[in-house]
Amino acid sequence: MFQEWWVPIFNMAVASAGRGLDLLSTWYVTPRLKLETGRIIGRLGWKGAILLQLPVVFLASLHVSLAVFVFILSLLLAAGNVQGAWFVKGVGEEKYFELMVKAVRRAGWGEIVLSEVGHLALYTVPAATVSYILAAPTSMCTFPWDVRVLALPILLATTFYGFLGTFRMLTYLHRLRGRMLF
C-alpha cells in the first residue's frame, strides 16, 4: 500500500523543489519580471507563473524520469538566473534593462548569435558525448542499464536547457533591439 502512493508524492516533491528554485531565483533577479526572457511568464505575471507550475509538477509526478528531468532543467535555469545577479542587484533592474537595450543595439547581430551559440555548445556537446558513451555496446560501457536509464533524463534536461537558453536569449535580445526606451 505504501509503495502505491509515495512514489508520485516523492516525484512531485522533487519537481516542486526544482520549479521552486527557478521561481525563487527569477524573483531574486527580476522581481518585476522586467528581465524575464520567457514571454509567457512575463505576460502572466507572478500569479500566472505559479499556476503554470501546477501541470508541470503533476506531469512530473507520473514517473521518476520526468521528475528528474524537471528538477535538473529547473536547477540549470535557477543557476542561469543567479549567474551575474550581483550586477543586476548592483545597478538595479531598470538600469540593467536600459543597459541591455543599449548594448544589444550597438552589437552586431552576428556577434550576438555567435556569443549565444557558445551557451548551446556548453550544454549540448558534453551531454551528447556522455549519451554516446552510455549508448555504446556493453563491451565498451560498463554502466548497468538502470544507470543509463536514470542518466537519460539528466542528459535530456541538459541538452534541452542548452537549446532553450539559447533560443530564449536570442528572442529576448531580438525584442530588445526594437524596444523604445522612453
Tell me about this structure.
It contains seven helices and no strands. It has 182 residues and is mostly helical. α5 packs across α7 and α6 packs antiparallel against α7 (145-177). The protein is flat. It starts with a helix and ends in a 5-residue tail after the last helix. The mean pLDDT is 87.
The overall pLDDT average reads 87
Percentage of residues assigned to helices = over 70%
Gross geometry: flat
Instruction: Give the low-confidence spans.
Output: none
Report the sheet-strand fraction: under 5%
Specify the structural class: mainly alpha
Cα-to-Cα separation, first versus last residue: 62 Å
Q: Major β-sheet, in short?
A: none
Radius of gyration: 19 Å
Number of strands: 0
SSE sequence, one letter per element: HHHHHHH
Provide a count of the helices. 7
Quaternary state reads single chain
Give the gist of this structure.
This protein is mainly α. The protein is 82% helix and 0% strand.
How would you describe this structure in keywords?
single chain, 182 residues, mainly alpha, 7 helices
List the helices and strands and how they pair.
Blueprint: H1 2-29, H2 39-60, H3 64-82, H4 85-91, H5 93-106, H6 109-135, H7 145-177
Helix pairs in contact: 1-2, 1-3, 2-3, 3-7, 4-5, 5-7, 6-7
